Amino acid sequence: MAGLMKVITGEMFSGKSQELARLVLESLGQGHQVQVFYPSSATRGSDRDLERRLPPHPRLSVSSVSPGTPGAMADLTPASADVVAVDEAQFFSKELVNVAKAWRREGKLVLIGGLDQDYLENPFGYMGDLMCIANEVVKFHAFCAACQSADAFVSHRVSSETGQVVVGESNYVPLCQDCYLSALEVREVPVFVD
Ligand SMILES: [Zn+2]
Question: Which end of the chain is more exposed for a tag (fewer CB within 10 A), N or C?
Answer without folding.
Answer: C
